Amino acid sequence: MTWKLRPARTAIALAASLPLVLGGCAAADSSATEAPNATAQSTTSVERSTDIERNLDPVMGDLEIGASARVGIAAVNTVTGESYEHRADESFALCSTFKTYAAAEVLRRARAGATSLDKHVTIEPGKVVENSPVTGPAAGTSMPLAQIARAALTHSDNTAGNYLLEEIGGPPAVTAIAREMGDDTTRLDRWETDLNEALRGDPRDTSTPGELADGYEKLLLGDGLFDADRERLVDWMRESTTSEQRIRAALPPGWSAADKTGGGSFGTANDAGVVWSPSGEPIVLVILTDSTTNRADEPANNRVISEAAAAVIDALGS
Question: Looking at the annotation, which residues are catalytic?
Fold first, then answer.
């Protein structure tokens, strides 16, 4: 497992160092009484994650073979600390999942006064690219920046994604915010739609499931944004219209999601975000996939994502 120190793992590390602390200071009575419980809970979480991995790995292996696909998964129940990873350190094409970072950076800049969500941006006809269901019909008119951000997240509008990139300083700004959020591998190098090329072995415009999950967790559940901005970002992602055959197809009754899809050549199909149980328990879930047929025109396989998501949700949400 390669997750960075999360609360449960931090508790284990602190508990492990406690005897050394007590050896030099007998006054740490409160820590002495609290640490065993934290250690027991964290150990149980790690043991459960090991059991989950043992059960899910064969499922993912069969899914990959049956669909001629490569599946990368990083998931963590942030309440219990239980997690699951499959190819979480392998590189996949990022595709439109970058739009979450871009929209978050627009929110941060608006909060700092560097821009405004009410700013009107002219949609120039010559800048409209493929898959722009919101901005395409609006070509020649202007749209508020907030509406452009919403279009990028709810409809994965590619022209909207490019306008967000223009607002924040281009692809390097996405790489920069990813690093600030603790995501050490995501990088954006190109604009829509070139970034969806997904050439094998090309490091440009790529990420890994484990690191993308770290960044998304900080933005959607943590302190990566001010509360109001985080709520707005989550609301936009809850309104996604592109995930119905992916993660959302796997949600049990009463569950909800805030996620961002992506797709590109070589059968690349992604979905990343947070799912919530009916009681509000969040699971960070990142699934990045591509085809092993080595055909650039291979279509996306939504079923791979939905079946993988269903298995992970069942394991971590029970």
Answer: 96
Token look-up 């499959």 returns 86
Q: What angle do CA 248, 318, 223 make, to 5 degrees?
A: 65
pLDDT digits (tens, 9 = 90+) for 11-54: 323 333 333 233 333 333 333 344 445 555 566 767 788 899 99
DSSP-derived 3-state class of residue 71: strand
CA distance 251 to 107: 29
Which DSSP state fits 192?
Answer: T
Peptide bond into 43 cis (omega under 30): no
pTM above 0.70, yes or no: yes
The tens digit of pLDDT for each residue in 153-201 reads 999 999 999 999 999 999 999 999 999 999 999 999 999 999 999 999 9
DSSP calls for 23-43:
HH-TT-HHHHHHHHHHHHHHH
Q: Tokens representing 67?
A: 């669909």
DSSP 272-298: EEEEE-TT--EEEEEEEEEESS--TTP
Handedness of CA 172, 177, 182, 188 (dihedral sign): negative
Asked if 257 contacts 251 with a C-beta cutoff of 8 angstroms, the reply is yes
H or E segment at 269?
strand 269-276
Contact (Cβ atoms closer than 8 angstroms) between residue 289 and residue 301: yes
